[in-house]
Amino acid sequence: MAIHLYKNKWANRATVIYWLLLIYVVAALIWWFIALNLQNRQMTEYKLNLLNRDDGAYLLKEAKIFNERDRMTRAYISEGLVFLSVIGVGAIFLYGAIIRQMRIQRQQQNFMMAITHELKTPISIARLNMETLQKHALDDAKKEKILKSSLQEINRLNALTGNILVSAQLEGGSYRFNKEELDFSQVVADCCQDFMNRFPNRPWKNDLEAGLFISGDPLLMPILVNNLIENAVKYSPPEASVSVVLKTEGQQGVLEVRDEGPGIPKKEQKRIFKKFYRVGNEDTRTAKGTGLGLYLCRKITQDHNMRLQVSDNQPRGSIFTVRFNLSEI
Ligand code: ATP
Ligand code: MG
Predict the structure, then answer these.
(1) Which of the four, 88, 139, 211, 300, has the lowest number of CB atoms within 10 Å?
(2) What mean pLDDT, rounded, does the chain reach?
(3) What kind of architecture, by CATH, is found in domain 180-325?
């Protein structure tokens, strides 16, 4: 909270300084124009005073002086306009950069808060479960339930730390791609099985074609599939069905993850792939998360020459589609 207030203060101060500087620069420009124009008029008067009325070419010389005056005024106006537009373009860029910077800071701060919570919760639950097992003699059914809940929390922790580590490595360039022939059908089937074990009450409608091979990284592919399925589960009510479809379309393979949740508004559909981006705000969101999942999915698909898209499901929900080249074996 203290950090939040500090950042807000910093942001307000930066905005005030920005506007003051902008007003100062524009005022200086206007002042420059007025001063030069005044000088121009004084010079004209001075030149006119030097003319001799008895001179035969008086009218001609007078017209020349007026022409010169008007030419200078036009030059000042056009120079002023050029300066003004350069300042305007610069100001727009600077303003955009400040706004972007503030948004990134806010998202990073949300990320830090989310991650602290997301890391601590599974650890606390698993610890409590272990302590319960240690202290009490429980019957087998209860033991099974506690172990299952601990395993679920540890799986969550595993997925989360996987996301964080891999995105840090991919970004830092330290991740070494290890592309090899992969049975993608098997990868998707394993991920689906894992989710079906974790959420047995969810109506699953999976349809997976066997024998689709790709050239891919064996560590990154499950991260991609898991993140898409996890979102479908996380952002739809527990009784809504989730469907994972793997099929061939022409020469390509297609993976579709469909859910029947509230869906994603059109204008948000482009933003959700940004790092740390989450729809809505901290006060209204109920599902926990860090905003790294889809960023990572997009990065992985780009690095594998795959295409990741989001569209609306009918009558409700979202469809995440990955299109990829099949490898010939
Ligand atoms: P993380 O995956 O890191 O735990 P997250 O799920 O919030 O956190 P992303 O997976 O990157 O992050 O998703 C970004 C945002 O897109 C989500 O916060 C959510 O608002 C929206 N979103 C993603 N998938 C769906 C979906 N299937 N239905 C509705 N909204 C979705
Ligand atoms: Mg997610």
Answers:
(1) 139
(2) 90
(3) 2-Layer Sandwich (3.30)
- CA 306 to centroid of ligand 1, rounded, Å: 20
Task: Kindly state if the Cβ of 292 falls inside 6 Å of ligand 1.
Answer: yes
- pTM for this one? 0.71
Ligand 1 and 231: CB distance under 6 A = yes
Q: What is the pLDDT of residues 203-229, one digit of tens each?
A: 999 999 999 999 999 989 999 999 999
Neighbours of 64 (CB within 10 A): 12
Cα(238) to centroid(ligand 2), Å: 16
> Where along the chain do its domains lie?
2-110, 180-325
Q: Point out the least confidently predicted range of 14-18, 79-83, 122-126, 298-302.
A: 14-18
Burial class (CB in 10 A: 0-12, 13-18, 19+), 134: exposed
In the chain, the amino acid numbered 133 is: L
Give the residue whose CA is nearest to atom 24 of ligand 1.
Answer: 231
Nearest to 256 by CA among 183, 323, 189: 323
**How crowded is residue 295: how many other Cβ atoms within 10 Å of its Cβ?**
21
Sequence-distant (≥ 6) Cβ neighbours of residue 258 within 8 angstroms: 232, 242, 243, 244, 245, 313, 317, 318, 319
Measured from the alpha carbon of residue 114, the closest ligand is 1
Tell whether ligand 1 has an atom less than 6 A from the beta carbon of residue 296: no
Quick check: CB of 167 below 6 Å from ligand 1? no
* Residue range 111-159, pLDDT digits in tens: 788 788 888 888 999 999 999 999 998 899 999 999 988 988 898 888 8
Q: Is the CB of 272 under 6 A from ligand 1?
A: yes
pLDDT at residue 167 tops 50? yes
At 288 the three-state DSSP class reads: coil
